[in-house]
What we know:
mainly alpha
Amino acid sequence: xxxxxxxxIPTVPLQYxxxxxxxxxxxxxxxxxxxxxxGSKVNAVxxxxxxxxxxxxxxLDIPHEHQLALQRIGDRLEWILDNITENGTSWTRSQQQNIxxxxxxxxxxxxxxxxxxxxxxxxxxxxxxxFGYLDxxxx
Length: 139
C-alpha cells in the first residue's frame, strides 16, 4: 500500500490562505480613468435629478428659491459633463473630491415614492445644494 503522508505543517483552510482582491485606489488612477468615473457618477445624478424636473405640476408648487436651487444643481452638473473631457484632468484634487462628495450625498437622498415624497426629496436636495460642493462652478 502507498505510504500515508502526514503533513508536518498543520493545514490551513484555503479560505484563509487566499488574500482578498486588492481594492482599487483612486489616488493612483490614470487621470483619464478618473474623468470616466466622475462622468459616470454625474450622469447617474443627472438622471435622478431629471425625475424631479419631470414632475412639472409638483415643481410649480414648491417655493421659487427651491426651484432655483434645483436649477443651479442641474446647470452645474451639465457644466461638469460639458467640460470634463477637455478640462477634467486639470481640475484640482479638491474640485474632483467636491464633485465626488456631491454625487455621494445626492445618492443618499431617498427617491422612493417620488410622487408622495416630492417635497421631502426637494428639501433634501436644496439642503445639499447649500453645502456648496459645486460652488466653484460658475455657470
